[in-house]
Every structure is written in C-alpha cells, then in structure tokens.
C-alpha cells in the first residue's frame, strides 16, 4: 500500500493527502481550488513556496521538455512534483474557500415593506462568504431562476439573507411562488455572485445611486461605507413615496451620521443621475456605485465619466423590473461537447460578471502604475489590487511588461527590475478568479507622447475589432487568426502567433482541455474562448497586447468597452 503524506497549506490552515500522484492531482482530488493552467511547467500558475518537507520531480521521457518557468530555490510547481514526505506549502494570496454553489435555505420571515414590496428572509444552513453588493439566484425548477440582491451583511446578521422583492404583474416568482411561501419552507439558492461589490479601502467620497429595489444591492454597500470615515451620499429614485420603503432607517442614520446624507428622487420630477450630477461632488476622487434599471446605469456611467470619475471607480449592476438580470444572448451555437466542455457552475451571467470585474481590476491597476516603478513592484501592486477587489486567486499569473519587454510573450523571461519610464508602453494581463468564474483581460497603455507607441495601440485595437467582427460571420478559430495576421500586416505590424487564444469557463477550465483558439477547426462559441492579439514592430522593440472573451454581437457586456477601459494613456 502506498504511503500517504499529509500536505498542510499555509496560511489557509487546510490539508490534503498525497501518495504517488502529482501534488496538483492530489489537491484537485481533494476539491481544493488550486490555480493551474498548462500542466507543463511553463505558465507558473501552480507555483507554491515550500516551507518544509521533501519532494521529487516527475519523470519525463527523452522527448518531453523540462519545465521552463523560472523558480526560486524554495519554490515548486504542483503540476511537476510528487511529495516524498509530509509537507508544508505556502500559498500567499490564495483563498481556498470555494463559494457555495447551491444551498437550500428555510424561510425565516416574510413581511410587506410597502404596498408592492416584500421582504423575504431566509437562513443559510452554513456560513456564506458574501461580499457587499452580491446577489443569489432563486432556482425555480425547469432550469428557470430569478436573481435578487442580498440586502444585508449576512456575516453581521447571524447568516441570514435578506431580500427586497417587488411584486410584478405576471411575475413567475413574485406572483406565482412568493405568496405561497411560509415560514420553514425551503428555497433553493445558487451563489453568491455579482461584481457590483465594495471595491476600495480608502477614505474617498462615496456616491450611491439606486432606483426602485436596486436599493437592495446598494444597502450593503452603504452599511460597509458607514463603517469607514468617508463622505457618503445616496440618491434613491422611485415612482411614488411608497417606493422609499427604508426611509425611516435612512433618516435615522443620516441624523446620527453627519457625513451621510440621502436624497429622495421622484421620477416625475427628475432622474437620479441628473440630481447627483447637479451636486458638487469631487468626482475625480469619488467612488460611485449604481444599482437599478439599465437606462439609469447607462446614463449615469456616461455622465459620471464625463464629470471626471475614473472608469474603475464606477461600479454598477443593472436590473429589469422583474428582478432578473439584464437579458443576455445565448451562445452563438450549442457548445461543442468535446472541445467546449464547461463545469457544473458555468453560466453566462457568472462569466459576464467575472469579465466586468476583470475589466475594472485592469483599469484600477493601470491607474496606479507610476513612472520609476519596477516590473516587480507593479506585479506586487497588481496582486494586492486583485485581492482587495475580491479575487480568490488567479488561474494564470499576472503578467506586466514595460518597454522592450512588451515584445515578449508571457512565458518568456523579462527583466523584473526594468522601470517604467516617463515615455513608455506597458502591457497588463490578468487572469483572476471571481466567485468561481475565470476572468481574463489584458490591454496596453501608453505613458507620455510617443507616436510609435500610440500607433501600436491603435493598430492593436483595430486588429482585435476586425478579427472579432470576422467571428460574427462564422469563421473557425484557425481562420480568425489568419484574418488577424492579414490585418496586422496591412497596418505594418507583425502578429505574434505563439499567443493563440484559449479556453475559459468556470474554474478550472484546464480540466476540460488545453486547445488553442488558433488551431480550432470549428466556429468558436460565445463566452468559452478568449481572443488574444499581440502585435510587434517588424524592427523596433515595441509590442502591444489585448485580449477579451468572445462575446456575441447581441450580448450585453457588463463592463465598459475596452477602448473606454484603456484609452491608451495612463496617469
């Protein structure tokens, strides 16, 4: 019988057992959400620090290349090594607490908050890790569901989940199911998910925008902000005075908290976003959170950005009146059962939320890059930002390239001490995991005025857009990269074919395959493939990189378009 070794994980305090299998396989068999990607020792996703214990490298055949990812003396790759004794491994920055996917919760109470708004309270059977502003899905059977924001902070409320639900004429849940629920009845929930969550720890002013029961998603953010010494202003829009169903709490809180004030906005008189922008907030420093109907979200984003709000500081979630999320188009076609496998938690809603949060994270990181900063310092900053924004871990390492290193691919070595110059070009490539869903977003930023750098970024986005447009016409993955190469050459640039696109899904997609988009002989489906474009100058050490998930033309992206998220300049 093979001896089994106990592998302790720090700082998580969890452990798993490993015999002769690879450490990565043993962790996955123990249902621990360890990041990994290539399984070849090339990407570094599964790198850990060895605190104690003995291990050995896996055997390789003569034609198998050795792992190429550079490691320190006290580091190993889980995909390349076996345990020879009990071990202690350090996994800095990783959360091994997988979000609950599905729970059954009993109803604790149900009461009317107004004529047409019901408060439903359920009790989670075990503690849930809920970030302020997230929501859950109520599973209704036959594959249908409804999404409702969690209107409280469960960790401070004995694990209770509170929902504010508006009665909608003909609503499947609000008229068909909610009236029949009694105390003790079970409801099936999935989550928590959502990207409209608390994003910062500084003391800058906070502006909250809500319409209708969008207030349910805003209230946990308000409660979080109240615990910090910041200026807070809430604008809440409704059709009637009865729509301001939490006015008593807000009035009491504003009287007790001088730095908090709130405004009722009746829709017959004005719009929430108009009233907010009429006030003299320090928009360049403010954090704005918005939750409500899609028209308000869209107009508020445009107005706030025009007023000086930084893109990554505008955080929003759009709803329709039924309580469901904004409609999202189905994939362009049924997923290929062999090449496009996904996991049990996969959903378009979850993937779009992960994409939006990744777009926002990239903008936040780019805004903090400073002249004189080394690549190593930038990578540390990026990891800290991702953790602060709620990423549980990364499914591939964060890649940042300055100057001459922008022509190199992620798996090629770079100079970690290279410093960002006043006139420079920088690539940021993120692969975070949000609530069990993989994000993948990267872009290029120009510092100062340099015609060649700006031309490179302009060509990059044009090549990406033209390639994505070609996908809409029904081309295969291989044909898409042929289009990209022709487009790049026509603009005077070279396409780096070694960056060839890849799969993405609920974490970890690497369980389902390692296929490259550029080698795909079928038309790629929506929301399961990432299109990567890297351009290089034919003779100069100048490169640029952009990537995003392939999203159908009728889908509703949750984040700003890539041109908005990265204007090509960084302060």
Structure characterization notes:
- The protein is of the alpha+beta class.
- It folds into four domains: 5-90, Beta-grasp domain (Ubiquitin-like (UB roll), Roll); 101-193, Elongation Factor Tu (Ef-tu), domain 3, CATH 2.40.30; 206-318, 3-Layer(aba) Sandwich (Rossmann fold); 348-549, Creatine Amidinohydrolase, CATH 3.90.230.
- It contains ten helices and 28 strands.
- The chain has helices at residues 23-29, 215-226, 247-256, 272-278, 294-307, 348-368, 375-388, 451-472, 477-490, 562-565; strands spanning 5-10, 14-18, 47-52, 55-57, 75-77, 81-83, 87-90, 102-112, 117-123, 135-141, 144-149, 160-166, 186-193, 206-211, 232-238, 260-266, 287-293, 314-319, 393-394, 399-402, 424-430, 432-434, 437-438, 441-447, 494-495, 502-503, 529-536, 543-549.
- Helix 3 links the parallel strand 15 (232-238) and strand 16.
- Helix 4 packs parallel to helix 5 (294-307), helix 6 (348-368) packs across helix 7 and helix 8 packs antiparallel against helix 9.
**How much of the sequence is in beta strands?**
25-35%
- N-end to C-end Cα span: 61 Å
Radius of gyration over C-alpha positions, nearest whole angstrom: 25 Å
CATH structural architecture of the largest domain: Alpha-Beta Complex
Task: Compute the average pLDDT.
Answer: 86
Task: Please mark out the parts with pLDDT under 50 across 5 or more consecutive residues, or reply none.
Answer: 320-332, 555-571
Structural class: alpha+beta
Q: Helix amount, in percent?
A: 10-25%
Number of domains: 4
CATH topology of the largest domain: Creatine Amidinohydrolase
Q: Compute the number of helices.
A: 10
How many strands, what sense, and barrel or not for the largest sheet? 6 strands, antiparallel
How does the overall form come out from the CA principal axes?
globular
Strand neighbour order, sheet with most strands: 11-10-13-8-9-12
Output the CATH class name of the largest domain.
Answer: Alpha Beta
Strand runs, count: 28
CATH superfamily of the largest domain: Creatinase/methionine aminopeptidase superfamily
Keywords: Iron, Iron-sulfur, Metal-binding
Domain 2Fe-2S ferredoxin-type: 5-95
GO molecular function: 2 iron, 2 sulfur cluster binding; oxidoreductase activity
Domain FAD-binding FR-type: 100-199
